UniProtKB/TrEMBL annotation:
Source superkingdom: Eukaryota
Native organism: Araneus ventricosus
Name of the protein in question: Mariner Mos1 transposase
């Protein structure tokens, strides 16, 4: 059946279809050729422009050695008719085996992510992070930055010499294990002075811990507090037989492991009263504050954080 002129936006609809399918340039031309042969395209509909579809956006990107970065964030967002407000976006930085990436994420997930920089053959260290922040003009936009614990401490110049007090917020003593379960009020960190002086790349108030790492950290403390010969700990060992004994004792679990445990009804049945109360509190924090859809009653709390 031939598509008639009752579809005035047929070109834009086909553009959306190509985007949703994630077709390559060759795939787009093949699709266009097949549709045209079957008379399923209205006059004026073109697929040939996909051969050079990236030319419109190349002006917003630059390359410096192994780094490819975006040189004009506001200009690129205007191309997509997106109103740009730096306070509505956060910068996510993380490293992989052979690359370092920086991506802009919308706070309400209303828009797709915007890649800002990509470095290959570089490591997650102070100098490389300094370079990428300089290239993307971080001081101009001043986004909030989220990342794992190693990334945040590196941004604060804590890459060397902070084994005793690793936290960038307070003077939590990693070696005072006896106080970890009794002391709740630790002094705020007033200075960042290890053996040598390294300046901050980002102010501490601009840093955010990822919800996933908060979940894993809470679960780690819960597992470490369990009696090692109790029924609950024995159930964990049978639940994850491939994990080593050392990982069990230190509470080393992944995000998928945490989800499996919290959805397992048998896990809560093996707990004592105090253990079940702590686990219920943990679930409540996750559901209210650390999931994609947060409870409206806790919005002032996580906005303040």
């Amino acid at each position: 059946m031939k598509i008639s002129a009752i579809y005035p936006e047929i070109q834009s609809e086909l553009n959306d279809l190509v985007r949703d399918l994630g077709l390559s340039k060759g795939g787009v031309e093949l699709l266009g050729s097949r549709l045209k042969n079957k008379n399923l395209l209205t006059s004026g509909t073109s697929f040939s422009w996909y051969r050079h579809r990236e030319k419109k956006f190349t002006q917003f990107f630059s390359k410096d050695g192994n780094l490819v970065f975006r040189n004009d964030v506001q200009g690129l967002k205007k191309c997509f008719d997106v109103e740009y407000d730096p306070s509505e976006w956060r910068l996510f930085i993380d490293s992989f085996k052979a690359s370092l990436k920086a991506v802009l994420l919308h706070n309400d997930n209303s828009f797709a992510s915007f890649p800002l920089g990509h470095l290959v053959h570089l490591e997650e260290n102070y100098n490389d992070l300094s370079m990428i922040l300089e290239k993307i003009n971080y001081q101009e936009h001043r986004w909030m930055i989220c990342g794992d614990f190693k990334m945040l401490t590196t941004l604060l110049g804590q890459q060397t010499g902070y084994t005793k007090y690793p936290c960038f917020l307070c003077l939590w003593d990693s070696r005072s294990r006896d106080l970890h379960w009794t002391k709740t009020d630790w002094s705020l960190r007033g200075a960042l002075t290890p053996g040598e002086k390294i300046s901050n790349l980002v102010p501490p108030e601009k840093l955010l811990l990822l919800p996933l790492h908060v979940k894993i950290g809470l679960m780690k403390q819960f597992i470490k507090s369990l009696p090692k010969y109790g029924e609950c700990f024995r159930y964990l060992c049978s639940k994850f037989p491939k994990l080593s004994e050392a990982k069990f004792k230190e509470g080393v679990f992944t995000g998928s492991d945490v989800r499996k445990l919290l959805s397992d009804s048998l896990f809560s049945k093996t707990m004592e009263d105090k253990e079940k109360e702590a686990c219920d509190s943990f679930k409540d924090v996750m559901h209210r504050c650390l999931e994609n859809t947060k409870n409206p009653s806790t919005k002032p709390f996580y906005n303040a954080c």
